[in-house]
TrEMBL record:
Gene3D superfamilies: 3.40.50.2300, 6.10.250.690, Winged helix-like DNA-binding domain superfamily/Winged helix DNA-binding domain. Residues 132-231 bind DNA. Residues 3-117 form the Response regulatory domain. This is Phosphate regulon transcriptional regulatory protein PhoB. InterPro entries: CheY-like_superfamily, OmpR/PhoB-type_DNA-bd, Sig_transdc_resp-reg_C-effctor, Sig_transdc_resp-reg_receiver, WalR-like, WH-like_DNA-bd_sf. One of its GO terms (cellular component) is protein-DNA complex.
Amino acid sequence: MPRALVIEDDHKIAELIKIHLKDLHYEIDHTLDGLEGYEMAKKTNYCLIILDLMLPSMDGMEVCRKIRANDIASPIIMVTAKSEEIDRVLGLETGADDYIVKPFGVREFQARVKAVLRRSLGKFENQSSTNNQIIEADGLSIDLDKRSVQKEGIRIELTPKEFDLLSLLAASPGKSFNRQSLLNLVWGYDFEGYEHTVNSHINRVRAKIENDMNKPSYILTSWGYGYRFNENI
């Protein structure tokens, strides 16, 4: 059975989340503490992490930041309150894949979980419509079926969102995507006003695949518009 980690210090909400995940046939590990949750995430390859923002020892934002800094690619759904709009933006920028606002119902929660996992396992239509399931570009190899990336034969660990961004751009070299389009295509929701989230994720991908962040050769900036994958490599 797939295993999920729930990092939530509100007992009632934690129990609700666990019930919903069990209905989706998950085995569940649960902790009330942010630091302990981070340590658990380092030791176990979870297929999903549900992460509250307000936690003892280490807040959810820092937990998410540290998880991504350790190249842990598990999909993360943040649990936020309605008043925490800025935190939802920052959560996405630090590497969360989605968020859900308290209070939430069973259908909304399970729909968000399924959507995150579907996007982390699936491929974009314009990729699957091509016969070439491996994209090669100047030492960079992107396997769309295995959702893996190698550079010069060395595997590069990307989060689901980082992989989706890279593979979407690489599947259409030379085509410029604006930030709003990337938000809609990769996150699957209309996150209007969250365009800076794209910048943060692009920077993380560049840090992992580029030889020089200041002179990128794979992901180029289309000034005043968005980003594109270099068609000349």
